[in-house]
Amino acid sequence: MNIAVVGGGTRCKRLIDVIDRHAFEEIDPRVVAVADTKEDAPGLARAKAKGLFVTRDYNDFFNRDDIDLIIELTGNMDIYNDILDKKKKHVRAISDATAQLFYEIARISTLQKKTDQELQETRARYKAIINELIQEDVMVIAYDYRIMDINDSLLNKLGLRRRDVIGQYCYEITHRQDLPCSGKNHPCPLIQTMNTKKPFQTTHTHLDKDNKKIYYSISTYPMLEEGDVIGAIEISRDITQDINMQKAMMQQEKLASIGRLSAGVAHEINNPLTTILTTAMLIQEDLDPEDPNFEELGTITSETLRCRKIVTSLLDFARQSNPVKKENDINKIIKECLVLTRKQAAFKDLTLTSELADNIPPLYIDKGQIEQAIINLTLNAIEATDAGGSLSICTTYSRYRQVVDVVVSDTGSGIRENDLGKIFDPFFTTKESGNGLGLAITHGIIEQHNATIDVFSKPGRGTTFTIKFPLSSGKNDAD
Ligand SMILES: Nc1ncnc2c1ncn2[C@@H]1O[C@H](COP(=O)(O)OP(=O)(O)OP(=O)(O)O)[C@@H](O)[C@H]1O
Ligand SMILES: [Mg+2]
Question: What is the Cα–Cα distance from 47 to 39, expressed in whole angstroms?
């Protein structure tokens, strides 16, 4: 790798000497050119003595074909931006701040070296850190919030060019704000690091274009020069998937414990309920329909039947743990659900349509349970939609992702943002006569099939539930 250095000071001289002295394993770095306006600059003099190309004007670098990397060591942002503008596409450029970071890493590793083995370990460790730095989003930020350097990963995510970013304020570029971050959801880690001279870690919460929460873990490390903080290295990582997985596990745990509790309670209640029901019916049979108590006994019977229905739902909910999986045609299951729910939809004057892909492979699922899950979703959709509205059930298969999607959507009332996180909780209902068990049962069934269920909803604009069955769904389970 041929390197050209802009700024022929002592750091340039040290760089030439270090490269001369060490054997590098994978890359073969070589300083081939140095630019400095001062002819007596020590790095420039060392380069001249070695017979390297030297110049007063770094613009001469851009005509050469033998340069792979330009290192800017003057610390002047305007020069670095000028290099970025003029350099050939394949030539890489490193700013003074980045060079400083790698110099620090190298310095620490030399300080720590004692034995050859220790040196190997230290090198491996720093190599890992650098690799990590490359995969994560990294910025070098000065004490005045200006971005001094940024890595390609973050640039790609922002969709910006390096030269649009260098020298700009970090909060303008990453948050499109006029002021530094603050508040509970966006504490500024840079301020903490500047004040304490210590690393700091925090989490930022943002909303994506669909209003879904995304979480960033942000860490800052101080850059010190003679004891003063001159800026910080900021490393950020999208941890949304980790957080969602944690939430899903908590939900599963919660459902499992409620399931156990419900099974016990429902079982205990079922027997006395049967006694109440049969006794009320027997007494009623003996009474004259004109008797004032006849109607009251009817109320006892119907209310007890309602309790029995709740208990049956509870038992369904608690019993979800043993699906009997076989190869099944999901389209066929959906068609059967449509037959069962079409009447209710027609009764409310709703259009019920389906679009079932014909390339769907068989799924390894419990027919009865999946039928129950889809009916629960369809009934909810019917209940949430006013006359004239429509609902649809679609299936699609992605050969590439090896996933079958079942999508149930409606044009109904939608779900309030505040309620979205609660709808899968047992007993959460917004309906006068609802039990709040339909979605809890559905969620449990879907989990038992190693599938996932997601909801997308906007108040007034309808709701879409998407179930994703991975093709391997359940096949490898010891069930
Ligand atoms: N398609 C939908 N559109 C709007 N809101 C919905 C939809 N599906 C579910 N919800 C909301 O989620 C809540 C919970 O649904 P869930 O099916 O668990 O219980 P429920 O329908 O209220 O009672 P039940 O136990 O009889 O099913 C509902 O009360 C409703 O507020
Ligand atoms: Mg329901």
Answer: 11
